[in-house]
């Protein structure tokens, strides 16, 4: 099982921890014993995003920021949980070496000038987020 660290305030922290463990199993990254996944719950993020993910597989970690508010409005709990699922897909992409945040390469191919919506890593995360939320949240 990965090492998970939850930082910041979030309702039902134990339930969220179980959810993150379930996501890890579903994404087949749960057996990466030495990998650390840090999830920071923040009031807001500097960008308009509800979540951000970055990592370094050679260093053995992924870090995820999750916003609790956006544009001064509280983000609904279910939306936060779905955002966690989306960002955990990115965590899988980093830990498996599919996405290289430094070079921008995807599955070993040189980076292209993808728009955010058309990038293959975002397409995968958007495709899986609802399914993962429904199957992994208890």
How would you characterize this protein structure?
The chain is of the alpha/beta class and 138 residues long. The protein has one domain: Collagenase (Catalytic Domain). The protein has 3 helices and 6 strands; from the N terminus they run E-H-E-E-E-E-E-H-H. It has helices at 13-26, 77-95, 120-136; strands at residues 3-7, 36-42, 51-56, 61-67, 69-70, 73-74. The strands form 2 sheets. The protein has a 4-stranded mixed β-sheet, covered by helices on one side. Strand 3 (51-56) and strand 4 (61-67) form a beta hairpin. Helix 1 (13-26) crosses helix 2 and helix 2 packs across helix 3. The radius of gyration is 14 Å and the shape is globular. The relative contact order is 0.17. The mean pLDDT is 93.
What key attributes describe this structure?
four-stranded mixed β-sheet; Collagenase (Catalytic Domain); 6 strands; 3 helices; 36% helix; 138 residues; alpha/beta; two-stranded antiparallel sheet
For this structure, the CATH topology is Collagenase (Catalytic Domain)
The CA-CA distance between the termini, in Å, is 19 Å
Integer count of domains: 1
Total count of strands: 6
Mean pLDDT: 93
Q: Sketch the topology as an H/E string, one letter per element.
A: EHEEEEEHH
Radius of gyration: 14 Å
Q: Trace the largest sheet across and list its strands.
A: 1-2-4-3
What gross morphology would you assign?
globular
- Coarse structural class: alpha/beta
Please provide a brief summary of the model.
With about 140 residues, this protein is an alpha/beta fold. About 35% of the residues lie in helices and about 20% in strands. Strand 1, helix 1 and strand 2 (about 35-40) form a beta-alpha-beta unit.
